[in-house]
Protein 1
Amino acid sequence: MEKIVKQTLLYDFYGELLTDHQRAIYEDVVFNDLSLSEVAEMQGISRQGVHDLIRRCDKILAGYEDKLHLIARFHETRRSVEEMYQMVKQYAESKDEALLSKITDLYHKVLEEI
């Protein structure tokens, strides 16, 4: 399951950088759950060709993340926003000015990241 989640994230962020042919085959195997044989028959290529293309696409997508770190940044921003949300809830109860300062600092950090 974890592999599929990773493939999905990589594809969501970098899938548009694949060729149309790569995207079509990758989507059929990974998202549409078609077998390698089914895709091979539809595309007029060998089962091994489909397998190799999927592995190559996985490496390409992972390579983009290694260079660009968009998914890592997304997760970091998401953690920061969740932390900010928790601080705002706490501030609403306490009206602590020091906490408001922390929220403001975190807000500016998130803005810089995006």
Protein 2
Amino acid sequence: MTQRRMIEQAIEKASDTKALKIGPDAIAYTGTMFNELFPGKRAIIVADMNTWAAAGERVCAALSEQGISSEPPFILEDSDLYAEWSYLEKVQARLENTDAIAVAVGSGVINDLVKLASHRIGRRYIIVGTAASMDGYTAFGASITKDGNKDTFECKAPSGVIIEPEICAAAPKEMAASGYADLIAKVPAGADWMLAEAVGADRIDDFAFSLVQDPLRDSISDPQGIYNGETAPIGKLAEGLIMSGFAMQAAQSSRPASGLEHQFSHYWDMEGLCFNGKHVSHGFKVGIGTLLSTACYEFLLPLDLEGIDIEACTGRWPDKEAMKKEIETVFAGKPGHLARGMKEGLGKYISSDRLASELSTIKEQWPELREQLRKQIMSFDEVFENLKMAGAPYTPEMIGLSNKDLKTTFRALPYMRNRYTIIDLIYRCGLMEKAEEALFGKDGRWSVTDE
């Protein structure tokens, strides 16, 4: 299937987004798209200082050329702007004072703020993307920090998306690097979905899976070009990210684009992770999570799971009360984490009989399943080098974490989200201690020696 046809089918099946323009001089199409989606409506541009400088005046001109009446642009001027509830309230208050439809000009932060603010007042919006920094342009939901905790709030994806690769290529290097890290994460995320289907936890949506995976290797094939700010590879990166968002719309779930690597990121979101006084970008957290997820596969795939002792696994499997105590121990002193662990960890609790059934399935399927997973997964060294070439963090210290922090996070992840990933297979096989040793022991990739 050609990329154009894939995009056409994605739009046909998308629940929210009905128009996409990506390519040279795409911004000139803004007014035309606005009129098609919101005939007779007025517009208001929402941007920050940087995104206004990058594309704001051209968006204004494109709207004016199509005779669209516009409110004065609403520009957020805070130099430390991020997706936080107080900024959401500012955007929402401005939109409530007009009947205009928002035209967001920006990337992750602006998109999430406008997405949720528009949703909360019963409106839609369009986004003019200014960086290939994340897959959220075409995704539903907005990640906003509220009361110190980052959470995903339900809301619709934009009605229309405009991406001009030349604009994205001119954005700061760290934005494309963040997008690259977010996209390479879809490699282990795809493997996690394959595992989930194998045990009957989450059936693969073939269309959504293909939207992400079919263009993925090409989209991440030129990390050096991404770092150099070359338009062609950044355009491919943007398309790959856009397709991931469409896949989430098609599946009505983040499953096509999110696995264990995102669970690492979510944990660090709850920790309020900052580095050098700034919040660490979603993509950078996910990139480190991708290295950890890939290391988990490199630990698991050589093992002979055909020979797993199911009786021993079920014999040490905790009952629900014992698991509650496990969760309390893991999250001691962290009430927010504990509440989430109780909800998510107990939400995916299974009986020992169900565990025996799952592990029997793994034993039966392992030879074939292992080969499928090996074809899906990139090697740790390749992921490491690609992140490095793209300008993304490739060691935990580069986002303000220690090896010990990684180990602490690893121990918590079996309870952090009600979604089956490789951590669940490791945990249910009774292999957590061996996995910890492989990742964080004396000869591990992230050796922890001070315990």
Protein 3
Amino acid sequence: MKAVVSITIDEEFVVHDIKVIEGEKGLFIAMPSRKATDGEYRDIAHPINSGTRDRIQKIILEKYEEVMMQEGISDED
């Protein structure tokens, strides 16, 4: 896990605890989740279509990269 972020949508709705994760194919986001009684993790809040998920992920990852550059932090650190 690289970071935990929050987003605000239309200055009306906030989602906390979105994780930025380094996977085999690069960075991706994981929406906030909770462990269910069956041991599986289920998203608490999430986009209902892939287009919205892609837009949210793109915005978060662009901001993550921007902040890392400003802080002088690279993925190799």
